[in-house]
Every structure is written in C-alpha cells, then in structure tokens.
Design a protein that fits this description.
543 residues, Growth Hormone, Chain: A, two-stranded parallel sheet, transmembrane, cytoplasmic vesicle, Synaptic vesicle 2-related protein
C-alpha cells in the first residue's frame, strides 16, 4: 500500500465526492454539485479511496474497505415503488390527522353556537383551544421523535388524536368538548413528524416536489370533510361528523405497521443492522442495487436537545425560521378569517359602515351553515392548488429561500391592493392569489426546515417551528376580527408589514438547501467527514 501511495506503479490519485453529499451553502464555501453517481456495480478499473486520500484500482483493494452512508444508499436506490407507497401513507396522515381535523373547526363552531346557544367568545375559544394544544405539544413530539424514533412519535400522536377525536363526539356539555378538542389539538401537533420521516427516505432530486405535493392531500382532506359534512350534518348531526372524521386515522394507524423506522435515525442511534435491513428492503421493493461496502455508523450523540438548535452554526437559522413559520400561520389563518368579513361587506370600504349597522347585533344570534356556505368553503380550498403548482415550478429553480421570500412579497402586495375600493370580482382574485402564495410559502418552509437541520435535531427543529406557527394562529383572530372592527386599514397594514419582514428573514437565512442532501450529524463532525471522504471533483488529482 505504501508503494502504491508512493506512486511506483504510476497510478493517478483521484478523490471522489459521495453521491447526495450534504454540501453546505455558498456562504460556507463548499460547492453543492453532485458529480458522481453511486452504482450498484463497479468497473474493474474504478479507483477506491484509501484512508490517506490515495486511490488504487479495485483489483488492488479490499472491497470491504469501501464504505457508504445512508445518503449514498437513498440516492443510489432512487425513487420507486417504496416511495410511492410512503407518499400515499404520509398523504393520508396529512389529510386525515391534519386537514380534516382543522377543517372541522369552521363547521363545528357555528353548529354549536346555535345548538348550545353559546356566546361568541366561547365559540372562538373552541377554535383557539385546538391551537393551544398544537402549540404546547409540537416541541414534545419533536423531542420524542428524535429520542425514540420518527415512527414511534408518529404512531403515538395518531392514536392519541384518534382516541380523543372519537370521544369528542360523546361530549355532553361545552366544558367537556372544550377539553377534548384541546387534547385533539395536542395530538395534531405530532403530524409534522410525518414530513420528517417522509423526507428522510426521499432522494435529493425528488424531495422538494414530493413534500410540496403533500399539500394536495391537505386540499383533498378539506374537500372530503366539507362533502362529509354536507351528507352527515342534515341527518346525523355534528356528533357523528366528529366520529366519522376520526375514522380515517384508524386506517393510517393500521398502515403504520408497514412503515419502517428512518434508516438515518437508526444509524445515528447506533443500530446499523436495522438501518441496513431497512435499506435492503427499500432496494428490493424498488428493484435497485445497493451500494457496495459497509454502512458507515455515525458517531452516537445526544438527540433532541434544544441547545443544539442554538449552536453558532444554527442559531440565526433557528430564530429566523421561527419568525418565518409564525408569519406563515399568522397570515394564512388571518386571510381565512378576513375572507368571510370582506365577502360579506363586498369591499374594504364597506366594512366600517356595515360594522356600524350591526353594532347592536346580539352575540347569541346564530346562523346555520347553508349549501352556499359549503360551496364557498370548497372554492376557498381549491384556490390553494395554483399555489402548490407555482411553488412546485420555482422551488428547484430559484431555491428555497427565494421561494419563501417571493411568496411573502406577493401576499404583502395583494394585501396592500385591498386598500383600494375594488369590486367583488377583483376582491376575489386578490384574495385567491394571496392565499395561493401564502399556502405555497408554507409548503416551501416544510421543504426547507427538514433539509437544513441534521438528523440528530431534525424532528425537534421542525417541531419547534410548528409550535411557533401555532402562536401565530392563536394571535391572528385578535387582528382579523377584533382589530378589524376598529380599523380595516390598520389590520391590512399589520399583515402586509409582517409578511414584508418575513420576506427579509427568508433572504437572510444563512443556508440554502437547494441541491444538497440531508445532513447526518452536527456541523463540526460533518465538516470533518466531508474533508475525510474527499471533496475534490473527479478530475482533480493530487501528486
């Protein structure tokens, strides 16, 4: 070996970059290009890298000296049958555990307002308590997923939501349903971990598109919930709607037994045999070869620690992401609440006069949802499809940071245009464009966040960001409803200003994740690993 390195055989020394290597951003000084594909078989004369950086043909090397990481295997196996199945199961979790349970709030509130003669503040509290539950549990579910596995955290959260979702249908009085819906919200806080598990099985080129397409399942879930309400509410009532809405979670709970644990998590926790078995299973299902060599076991380290989100490398990323997620939920749910007010008034200029006319309106006055109301709910939901398509088209072209910034800017611009006394048709167009882009920006954040954090803190990072989003959702009713009564222009200015700041925050994010794989471990270790495994391009030689 010494003679080979010394060069008496005349071999050219070549260093290779691993497929799907998680390159840092341009600011970190490492290129994001992926120049060598992992193949299931090697050619006779393909160089094999030695520990000291030299390279020799395979005929002079021990094949067992070759190593690969989970990222290599995921990239080599590619997107296939396994990922299609995983997409459907993750989409089912997104539709049943998230979209349907959130959509039911807009249907349940007016029904209980009339049936139980609830004052307006109690109706609002019924919605807010769900967000309180989500906010309080998001970090906890992230910590559980980092400590005990993505699959474990997801299964517990789904079963939790299923149990309390069904119990909600048997609530005898207001205080009972308030507590039970809060516990449902506590379970919903674990749903974002399905994205963590999903992203860790996706090859780099397919990751952004697949995560964005989860939004389609959100729309399908909300549409299904509205259609279910149209059938169930007039005949069986709201109790059966709650019970039937929870049943799709039972299907997901059964399918969870098919789900494997994340191979990245298994490697990080030291269970390399289980990780290798999972990768071989995926390769078999996809009909693709596994990379040759041994699976590298990452150094075992503490997982799910809050302090890891505030290391020098991630401190600004975490703080900026928290504000971005807060702004996304604050603006998205605010727009949903504003849409009803603006449609009822006709335009912005009519709101003040309409408020004066209905100022003496009794808070106990109730109106059941009509067929026209359900139709409006469907149209509002369908308006998010264009946002997904636009985001899908631009996110791999201009990058994650610029996609989020553009979404916030378009929303802010549309909010400012609402200052004009436009007609109903123009108002509808502006609201639909704003909702399309803010929902697309939300999905871009779901793509970026799992990519930017390493495996050790990925679930916790996503969980804390989701928790900050619930803070925004809690605050926005006081802006979209309470402040709106005082000044519609100030209300629109708050939303527009918040999104402008969020656009700046997106631009100032220190790391761009476009074109790079998922990090396996901490920044310091990752940088050393990059150097140790070679960061030169294939044609680069060392003498």
């Amino acid at each position: 070996r010494k003679d080979l390195h010394g060069g008496f055989c005349g071999f050219r020394v070549v260093k290779f970059r691993r497929t799907g290597e998680s390159s840092r951003s341009d600011e970190d000084g490492i290129s994001g290009e992926h120049e060598v594909q992992i193949e299931g078989m090697r050619t006779e004369l393909e160089p094999v890298e030695l520990e000291d950086g030299a390279a020799v043909p395979k005929e002079f090397a021990n094949p067992t000296d070759d190593t690969f990481m989970v990222e290599d295997a995921v990239e080599a196996i590619g997107f296939g049958k396994f990922q299609w199945k995983l997409s459907v199961i993750t989409g089912l979790a997104w539709a049943s555990n998230y979209a349907m349970e959130m959509m039911i709030l807009s249907i349940l509130a007016p029904q209980l307002h009339c049936e139980w003669r609830l004052p307006s503040w109690k109706v609002a509290l019924l919605t807010s308590v769900v967000f309180v539950g989500m906010m309080s549990s998001s970090t906890l579910w992230g910590n559980i997923s980092d400590q005990y596995g993505r699959k474990t955290g997801l299964k517990i959260s789904v079963l939790w939501t299923l149990y309390y979702g069904i119990l909600s249908g048997f609530a005898p009085i207001y205080s009972w349903i308030l507590v039970l819906r809060g516990l449902v919200g506590f379970g919903i806080g674990g749903v974002p971990q399905s994205v963590t598990l999903y992203a860790e099985f996706l090859p780099m080129k397919a990751r952004a598109k697949c995560i964005l397409l989860i939004e389609v399942f959100w729309a399908l879930g909300t549409v299904f919930e509205v259609l279910l309400a149209v059938v169930v509410m007039p005949t069986l009532g709201w109790r059966w709607l709650l019970i039937l809405s929870a049943l799709p979670l039972l299907l997901f709970a059964v399918l969870c037994f098919w789900l494997p644990e994340s191979a990245r998590y298994d490697v990080l926790s030291g269970n390399q045999e289980k990780a290798l078995a999972t990768l071989k299973r995926i390769a078999t299902e996809n009909g693709a070869p596994m990379p040759l060599g041994k699976l590298v076991v990452s150094r075992q380290e503490d997982r799910g620690k809050m302090r890891d989100l505030f290391t020098p490398h991630f401190r600004w990323t975490t703080l900026l992401l928290w504000f971005i997620w807060f702004s996304n939920a604050f603006s998205y749910y605010g727009l949903v609440l504003l849409t009803t007010e603006l449609f009822q008034a006709g335009d912005v200029c009519s709101i003040s006069s309409r408020r004066q006319e209905v100022k003496a309106k009794c808070s106990l006055t109730c109106e059941y949802l009509t067929e026209e109301d359900y139709t409006d709910l469907l149209w509002t939901t369908l308006s998010e499809f264009p946002g997904v398509l636009v985001t899908l088209w631009i996110i791999d072209r201009i990058g994650r940071k610029k996609t989020m910034a553009l979404s916030f800017l378009v929303f802010s611009f549309c909010s400012l245009l609402l200052f004009l006394c436009v007609g109903r048709n123009v108002l509808t167009v502006l609201l639909f464009i704003a909702r399309a882009f803010i929902s697309g920006g939300f999905q871009a954040a779901y793509v970026y966040t799992p990519e930017v954090y390493p495996t050790a803190t990925r679930a916790l990072g996503l969980g804390t960001c989701s928790g900050m989003a619930r803070v925004g959702a809690l605050i926005t009713p006081f802006i979209a409803q309470v402040m709106l009564e005082s000044s519609v222009y100030l209300t629109l200015l708050v939303y527009s200003g918040c999104c402008l700041l969020a656009a700046l925050a997106s631009c100032f994010l220190p790391i761009e994740t476009k074109g790079r794989g998922l990090q396996e471990s901490s920044h310091k270790e990752w940088g050393q690993e990059m150097v140790g495994r070679g960061s030169h391009s294939p044609g680069e030689s060392q003498e």
